[in-house]
Amino acid sequence: MLATLKVHLNVNFSLRAKKRETTQPTMRHFKEWCEANSAIPEDDDSVFRLIKFSLDSKFILSDATYKLTYGNFPAITGGTTDRAKKFHPFGLALCNSEKEIDFAFFFKSIKQVAEIVYNKLIDPRIIIADNAGAISNGFEQVFVCEKRINCWAHVIKK
What we know:
Blueprint lengths: L1 H17 L8 H10 L7 H5 L10 E7 L9 E7 L5 E8 L5 H19 L7 E4 L3 H10 L4 E4 L1 H6 L1
Parallel strand pairs: 1-4, 4-5
Antiparallel strand pairs: 1-2, 2-3
Helix pairs in contact: 4-5
C-alpha cells in the first residue's frame, strides 16, 4: 500500500508539474488517496500484521516527527518493543498538527483496528514518549495510564 502511495504521489506530482501547479501535496490530496484506497483486504495478514504487536503489549512508545513526510505533516508513530529491545511499529498517522487530539485519534484508531480485525480489546497501561504533554494526554483519553516513562533517547539527548 505504501508503494502504491509513492507511485500515486509521483504521478500526481508529475501531472501538476506539467500544469505548472505546485508540487506541494495537501491534506486534501492525502485524504483523497486514503479514501480511494480504504477497502480492507480479505487477507488480514497482508495489511494488519503490524497491529498484532499491539494485542498483548502493556506499553506503547509514541512520538511524532516532521522529518519523514512530504509537506511537513507530522508523522505520529506508535509501537512496542520485545525483550531483545527490537521495535515493532503498529501505527503511523499523518496529521496536520501534533496536538492532544491527534494523538488521541492515533491511539483510538489502533484500539479500534485491534477490536475490529482481531476481536480483542487492547489495554496498554504505560506510555513511553518524550516530554510532550499532547502524547500523554492523548493516551489518557483512550487508555488508563498507570505510568509515563521518558524515552531513553530523549533523556540522554538533553
